[in-house]
Predict the 3D structure of the following.
Amino acid sequence: MRRFFGKKEGQFVIIDNDELAHLSKVMRQKVGDKIICICDDENEYYCQIESLDKRICKAKIEKIEKCSALPNKDITLFQALPKKEYLDEIVAKAVELGVSTLQLFISDFSNSSRINDERIKSQILSASKQCGRSKLMINLPLIKFSQLSKMFENFDFVIFANEKEKFKTIFDVKNIQNATKIAVIVGNEGGFSEKEIQAILKERVHSITLGTRILRCTTAVTTILALINALTKN
């Protein structure tokens, strides 16, 4: 069954706007069809389309199941703002790999100081439907690098993918499997400046290497999140 994002209203899910266009014009769903609706909560709603017009689709809920694809760890990705062509993939991989919150920030090597929140929202929604997540990843407002440090206090572990780190790996971070809130810091395609690296290392972070090869920022995000998932069973 196809998945669509909507708003739960009593015993129905209402689908409108862009999702309605995707449902009716792209996927060609019609009255009587069975669909799965996600409503930004912990459940999947198995529905049958009861009515469909140019304004809304009204789908009657027939069964509710808890979503099996929800992450069981609270992971926040602190991502230095990359070039536009890399951002879509980073957002998609973060959703697929169980990140709960995305915090983009402007670093010394960021080539832009603006983001398209609507595009990010669309990417989050698309990736969530693709991988089966029912609760959407939160996209926090863009911040400056100088605002980062005060955000690390409430995490059990802060993992820093440091290109200058030579020896320590994620496997040297003891007891990470018991963590519930994890912060992950990843640079953009230019990495971090020396000043930024030193500033991060002054915080309560675990600096790790992802190996001797230089990774693209999209690859670094995928690698570190996959490793954390394997260690924490996220």
Remarks:
- The radius of gyration is 20 Å.
- The helical segments are 17-26, 84-96, 117-131, 194-201, 217-232.
- DSSP finds five helices and twelve strands in the chain.
- The domain at 74-232 is CATH 3.40.1280.10 (Alpha/beta knot).
